Amino acid sequence: MAWLNLNNSINTLKGQITNFASNVLADEGPDITNKDVEELRNICIQQEIEINNLKRINQELSDQQIRVNLNAALQYL
After folding, report:
1. Are residues 62 and 40 in the same domain?
2. Residue 22 needs a FRET pair 20 to 30 A away by CA distance; which of 13, 37, 44, 71 works?
3. pTM for the full model?
């Protein structure tokens, strides 16, 4: 009769898993409005602009450093 207890345990576990899955699927995530999406887009656009500006500044400073190094090397010739 031990198999009946095992069968009952398995059925109970299956029921718990089913209930858990149903609860998880029934839960809704946070409400996201069009305003939220638009705000996130604007933040992304601003960050892209900032990244591009920083890349430009980095390139300018790199070019300037190359010129300084080249001028310093030419002075030793």
Report:
1. yes
2. 37
3. 0.56
